[in-house]
Amino acid sequence: MNYQKAVxxxxxxxxxxxxTQHKIVRAxxxxxxxxxxxxLIQPAxxxxxxxxxxxxxYHIRVLVQNPLSPQEITALATVLEVDExxxxxxxxxxxxxxxxxxxRSQRPLWYGVSIGHELVSAGTLGCTVYDQGKTYWLSNxxxxxxxxxxxxxxxxxxxxxxxxxxxxxxxxxLARFVPLDFTGxxxxxxxxxxxxDNSLVSTNFPPSNPPLATLTGITTPTYGxxxxxxxxxxxxxxGTVVSLATDLPVTFDRKQAYFVDQIEIEGEDGxxxxxxxxxxxxxxxxxxGLVVGLLFAGDGNLTFANPIANVLRALNVTLSK
Length: 321
Known about the structure:
This protein has 321 residues and is of the alpha+beta class. The chain has helices at 3-19, 24-28, 30-33, 70-80, 141-144, 308-315, and strands at 45-53, 57-64, 87-91, 96-97, 114-117, 123-124, 127-131, 134-139, 155-157, 170-177, 185-186, 191-195, 217-218, 226-231, 235-252, 255-267, 282-285, 290-298, 302-307. The protein contains 6 helices and 19 strands. A 7-stranded antiparallel β-sheet has the order 6-5-9-10-12-8-7. A 6-stranded antiparallel barrel has the order 14-15-16-19-18-17. It has a 3-stranded mixed β-sheet with strand order 1-2-3.
């Protein structure tokens, strides 16, 4: 399938998913298409992306929490006007914003350490960014701004609460964030914290083997790109970009927000690329120091990230002074 056809099919699927509370059968009228069937399941759809094999052969990645029957796969292909081989059914659990319990106090603050709003359990410090020379730390809205619940000037602790943080661990304040939209669509889950003092600022990752390269800029992800990150929970991990345009609902506590055109990453050798607590990690192209995305969610197997160019633009910051 060519790329334009894949984009059209994904658009149909994504628009229906957003409009109908994330149930495949109800979303695509499969009960009508399959009206002769006596048994219908309603598998929750976890997301839709575009994958690629080779250089020009694209397919639709349908992330499902429960398997579809052969009849439902046939019906879905009919609704989308694609051939069945152009659909890939990928098992995925409910995708959640990664926010759970290095997990110790670290001064100055390395990229990848435990951090969070004073009311948030623990997330990850992504990296340092700049606005007209002023220094900020980058992470997620749900790490620094408590999912829209915080206000500018609130305390940021390192380590986070789950890792023993307290008022004595205060290292910065919430500077600004991109509000999460729980009724429409989102491109980023991002926020900035302002350090209390420049002596707290570092531009280094924690030691790892192999070590992560010093950040050199940003780059656009590509299919099959090898990536790496350092996060509060899983430390150094490697993975592969499998989709550049995944649309999916993400659970934030008891609310859901719908994200579009996200980067989807699989861990290597059967290992998870990320786990709860890694939210806010920056993802870089392996070995280059070029930032690809900002990690914000996953299901324990798959990881999802905001494209870094969208993050920087939304917050009006740059990666270098």
